[in-house]
TrEMBL record:
This is ABC-type quaternary amine transporter. InterPro entries: AAA+_ATPase, ABC_SmlMolc_Importer, ABC_transporter-like_ATP-bd, ABC_transporter-like_CS, Mo/tungstate-bd_C_term_dom, P-loop_NTPase, Transp-assoc_OB_typ2. Residues 19-249 form the ABC transporter domain. The keyword Metal-binding does not apply. GO terms for cellular component: ATP-binding cassette (ABC) transporter complex. It comes from Streptomyces aquilus. Keywords: ATP-binding, Nucleotide-binding, Transport. SMART domains: AAA.
Length: 360
């Protein structure tokens, strides 16, 4: 595995770069892939682009790599406009979902390939490739071909190859999606640790919210070509800026309520509204499972529909009197009496809540 000396040997890049997307727009026929994307990635930061399929996150990454060009807008690296600069001159290393290793080259030569294309002498490039393989924990696998490596090992080789040219920016396009859950967990921790130690500016595309929240300094949630919110994971989860972010990141229940003058009536309570809200009218109150309180109550109008054991917590699904459902995560010892069919009382903490337009 890597040592501090390995990291020092590899970490001879130029200073970490600042990346800016300014007003990027890209259309593919009638489909708008990016609709005015503005985003800044700070030096040494790892930002995850998170969103459903077709939201524009991969298009944005490919524009930074130089594989796509916007219809309008600019891509800047350290203030330099690289919008029309060819991919091979972008000084970016990219790791693809499919690994894209050369099957006829062993691991060492795969890592050294870009150096060979740049005319680096044989001894120097092989020494550097060996350093990188050790950095990613594959010091003894340099002579193996891709078909002799596991999926996780192939992805480590792809990462080492991306770092070989000492790029200012590292681009990761769903690099873990083809791996099984255990390998994915291990590798994402290793990628994050390596990225922090090297201090390289990194943009990471994923549709996996757990992956994004666990790895990124900030998460940029995209929807229909637009940036909904970019924030640190805790802020994104605890204070979502829009209803889309609230429901896409984590689990969220909708409870019917009525707004009047910045206050919402919900579950027999009057709570302040967090953020923008209509002056008056029917709304849905958005709540996380851990914020919902459920207690046994013989006179309660709500009923437990189902329970699911989650380890330290139990998720309780409750049917409300109006026919809607709400999920609550409770400590296991508090949920022992909450069996299916039990009458319960449901309430929310006395703090501001997020509201959204009422769904049909």
């Amino acid at each position: 595995m890597k040592t501090n000396e390995n990291v020092a040997a590899v970490n001879t890049t130029a200073k970490a770069a600042t990346v800016e997307f300014r007003g990027l727009r890209r259309e593919f026929g009638p489909t708008v892939a990016l609709d005015g994307l503005d985003l800044t990635v700070r030096p040494g930061e790892l930002v995850a682009l998170l969103g459903p399929s077709g939201c524009g996150k991969t298009t944005a990454l490919r524009m930074l790599a130089g594989f796509e060009h916007p219809d309008s807008g600019e891509v800047l690296v350290d203030g330099e406009d690289v919008t029309r600069v060819p991919a091979h001159r972008r000084d970016a290393g990219m790791v693809f979902q499919s690994y894209s290793l050369f099957p006829h080259l062993d691991a060492l030569d795969n890592v050294a390939f870009g150096l060979r294309m740049r005319g680096v002498r044989t001894g120097e490039r092989r020494a550097r490739a060996a350093e990188l393989l050790e950095l990613v924990g594959l010091a003894d696998k340099g002579g193996r071909y891709p078909h002799q490596l596991s999926g996780g090992q192939q992805q480590r080789v792809a990462l080492a190859r991306a770092l070989a040219l000492r790029p200012r920016v590292l681009l990761l396009d769903e690099p873990l999606s083809a791996l099984d859950a255990k390998v994915r967990l291990t590798l994402r921790e290793e990628i994050r640790r390596l990225q922090q130690e090297l201090g390289i500016t990194t943009l990471f595309v994923t549709h996996d919210q757990e992956e994004a929240l666990s790895m990124a300094d900030r998460v940029a949630v995209m929807h229909a070509g637009k940036l909904e919110q970019c924030a640190a994971p805790a802020e994104l989860y605890g204070r979502p800026a829009t209803a889309f972010v609230a429901e896409f990141v984590g689990t969220m229940s909708r409870i019917p309520g009525r707004v009047s003058d910045g206050v919402v009536d919900v579950l027999g309570q009057r709570l302040p509204v967090d953020g923008a809200a209509p002056q008056a009218g029917e709304v849905d109150v958005l709540v996380r499972p851990e914020a919902v309180r459920v207690s046994a109550d013989a006179d309660g109008k709500a009923r437990v529909l189902a329970t699911s054991f989650l380890g330290a917590a139990v998720r309780v699904t409750v049917g409300l009197a109006d026919g809607s459902e709400v999920k609550a995560d409770l400590p296991a010892h508090e949920a022992t009496a909450l069996t299916a069919g039990a009458a319960v009382h449901v309430s929310l903490p006395e703090r501001p809540v997020l509201v959204a337009e009422r769904t049909a």
